[in-house]
Amino acid sequence: MFWRILWRLLYASRGRLALAVIAVASGAAVCAALLNLNLDATDKLTREFRVLGANVIISAAQDGDAAATIDAGTMQQIEQLRLPEIVAAAPYLYLSGEADAGANRTAVILAGTWLDEVARMNSWWKVEGNWVSARDSRSDCMIGEEAASRLGLIPGQNVKVVYAGREATLKVAGIVTAGSSEDSQIFIGLPLAQELAGLGERASLIQITARGSATEIEDVIRRLSSALPGVEVRPLRQLAQAEGRLLERIRGLLFGTVILILALSSLGVLAAMAGLALERRRDVGLMKAMGGPVRKIMRFFLAEAMAIGIAGGICGFIVGMALSEWIGERVFSVSITPRLIVLPATLALMVLVSLAGALPLRLLGRVRPSDILRGE
Fold first, then answer.
1. Dihedrals φ, ψ of 130, to 5°?
2. Fewer CB atoms inside 10 A, N or C side of the chain?
3. Tell me, what's the pLDDT at 97?
4. Are 340 and 14 in contact (CB under 8 A)?
5. Helix, strand, coil % over all residues of the chain, rounded to 5
6. In this predicted model, what pLDDT tens digit does every residue of 286-328 receive, in sequence order?
7. Tens digits of residue pLDDT in 9-56
8. How far apart are CA 367 and CA 48, in angstroms?
9. What's the DSSP call for residue 333?
């Protein structure tokens, strides 16, 4: 009987209830889109940030020796930690040497590193030619745009690098344009740099690319500091803090918009329910005259409100997923993946909004059957 009466009530007021469903669905679409963006876009944005390069540096403890180095075996300890936030890591050994291209000779900084990891950490670099894919290459190198210009080099030509009386002839695989100090450096394999320096398994520092918010990156730094005594682990503050601030502002904007939309949706339901309450006065008066308790009568209207919330939530979720994909591509330039976990969250929010908007129906409990039966 309950469901038959509820269906009759819904069908009889289908026009006004349709407006309430549209109001809820509109709010649900925006809320679902923003919640999905918060779950998916911010995670993908942290990945996109990773192309900006390293944001954590490991170096020798500061003891007044600017040329202090660390054991390159530290990389093995970092790999053994298996921290999921670490996307890429590369040791660097910097040498102040010379480069000779035959007709031209100039002083340069030789950066010995794992070139395959550097490619992952700095995928935004513009490279004319090719990356060196071999981590321990002793025959190829990458050269910065400024250094290549001074030496008159193009990809495919050879350059001789010299340090402390030791030298090596390398083929230029690619010319790097980074827009920073890297443009004046020559990147060679770490084993070759260690051989030129005669230092053995040593490195000047280790650069790490870690993903996550500023808080998560700080947590990575704490764990690395605990696991690697005797070295200094520090963030590149400017990059890490900029990422954290941007992500926090995005989240704040998304949640602030969700709250505003929920309030507006509730007002839309409130307006529809206020009109519905006036229409239902006669029905309620008749039910009460037949002995129906107020609680049972109010259940019908609460069930109506829940039906509005569920119907609007489902419709809004479908539209919201499409909307989130569009916003992701247009605003954040990332592909957004629909998250099914957003559906129950959206339904719960919309049911709460509908129940809040159904407050005018409480006034129906004050209807006196005698007034209705007299036609007042």
1. -135, 155
2. N
3. 94
4. no
5. 60, 20, 20
6. 666 666 666 666 776 777 778 888 888 899 899 988 888 887 7
7. 565 566 667 777 887 888 888 888 888 877 766 565 555 554 556 788
8. 60
9. -
Give the model's confidence band at 338: pLDDT under 50 very low, under 70 low, under 90 confident, else very high: confident
Sequence-ordered list of residues with C-beta below 8 angstroms from that of 44, at least 6 positions apart, any chain = 332, 334, 335, 336
Query: Directed axis angle between helix 14-49 and helix 342-357, to 10°?
Result: 140
Query: Could you tell me if 172 and 143 are in contact, meaning their C-beta atoms sit under 8 angstroms apart?
Result: yes
Q: What's the CA gap between 356 and 193, in Å, rounded?
A: 69
Q: How many residues comprise the chain?
A: 376
Give the C-alpha separation, 275 to 364, whole Å: 12
Mapped onto helix, strand or coil, the DSSP state of residue 110 is: strand
pTM over 0.90: no
The number of CA neighbours under 13 Å toward the Cβ of 313 is 22
In single-letter form, the type of residue at position 310 comes to I
* Per-residue model confidence as pLDDT tens digits over 243-264: 556 666 777 777 788 888 888 7
Say which amino acid occupies 369: P
Instruction: Give Cα separations from 345 to 28, 250, 275, 349 (angstroms).
Output: 10, 20, 28, 6
| pLDDT of 144 strictly over 80 | yes
Distance from C-alpha of 259 to C-alpha of 248, rounded to nearest angstrom: 16
Q: Which is nearest to 361 in space by CA: 283, 278, 290? A: 278
Residues 186 and 167 sit within 8 Å (Cβ to Cβ): no
